[in-house]
Request: fold
Amino acid sequence: MKTEFLKSLGLEQDVIDKIMAENGKDIEAHKAAAAAKETELAAANQTIKDLQETVKKFDGVDVAALNQQISELQAKYDTDISAAKLESALDLALVAGKAKNPKLVKAALDMEKIKLDGDKVIGLDEQLESIRKSDPYLFDDVKPGPTLNSGLEHGDPLESGSVDKFISAATAAAGIPADQK
Reply:
């Protein structure tokens, strides 16, 4: 809108100024909106350009083959983790079973019959019992050592303060008659 058009309508100058000021506000608002849309359009164009460059990097890549490789690697990973868990559980079970050399005992095991169910090793106990019977030297069986029986009550013989009780107990344990001291 132009000032001359408003003057031709017979409007006063102060009314024309107010109309032009209001019109200027509208024009500035539309300019700001247009500038925002231009910025948005430039960003969208840049994104499209970046995506096109990214797609060019993967041009000729077989997605199905990549998915197959991922599946194979996942299966290998799962197998390796299962084997490591079984080995660890087996080592712990052999140590708990008092194997002197777990590596030797493990070599005597039929690993096809041993499975891991959670934290429990299945099929191991029967094989360990068989190996324990056939090769007991592979296991460290704790047997109580020899005991010494003095023939008297155990405890501190000097508690009562009498050395004579200790001497008489020692001579009695040695088999020396009390009158031959």
